[in-house]
Amino acid sequence: MNVILHPRYITDEQGKKMSVVLSVEEYEALMEEVEDLALVAERRNEETSPHEDVEARLKADGLL
């Protein structure tokens, strides 16, 4: 999923960006992306299975 953001900035008197405002929809999509990335990072050292093995397991379980 690509998150397209339309941020609005709150600035101080000098125009320095201090805060960001996102719609709830954008915020929730962004948080979902963060959660997905966290899962990928947690699992990066897990063993992998060949595609054929996964496919055979799914077929045996009636999921494919």
Could you outline the blueprint of secondary structure elements for this entry?
Layout: E1 8-11, E2 17-21, H1 24-43, H2 51-60
Antiparallel strand pairs: 1-2
Family: Belongs to the phD/YefM antitoxin family.
Region (Disordered): 43-64
Pfam families: RelB-like
Rg from Cα: 20 Å
Strand order across the largest sheet? 1-2
Count of domain modules: 1
Low-confidence stretches: none
| Oligomerization category of the chains in this entry | single chain
Work out the strand percent: 5-15%
Provide a quick synopsis of the model.
Belongs to the phD/YefM antitoxin family. With 64 residues, the protein is α+β, with helices and mostly antiparallel strands.
Describe the overall structure.
With 64 residues, this protein is α+β, with helices and mostly antiparallel strands. It has one domain (8-60). The mean pLDDT is 94. The chain has a two-stranded antiparallel ribbon. Strand 1 (8-11) and strand 2 (17-21) form a beta hairpin. Helix content is 47%, strand content 14%.
Structural key phrases:
single chain; 64 residues; alpha+beta; two-stranded antiparallel ribbon; elongated
